[in-house]
Amino acid sequence: MKAIRVSVFGGPEVMKLEETPDLHPAGGQVLVRVKAAGVNPVDSYIRAGTYAVKPSLPYTPGRDAAGVVEEAGGDVSGLKKGDRVYTAGTVSGAYAELALCDPGSVHPLPERITFEQGAAIGIPYGTAYRALFARGRALPGETALVHGASGGVGIASVQLARAAGLRVIGTAGSDRGRELVAAQGAHHVLDHRAPDYLNQLSSLTGGRGVNLIVEMLANVNLAKDLTVLAQNGRVVVVGNRGTIEINPREIMGREASVLGLVLLNASASELSSIHSALGAGLENGTLRPVIGQRIPLAEAPRAHDAVMRPGAYGKIVLIP
Ligand code: NAP
Question: Nearest residue CA, atom 5 of ligand 1?
Answer without folding.
Answer: 151
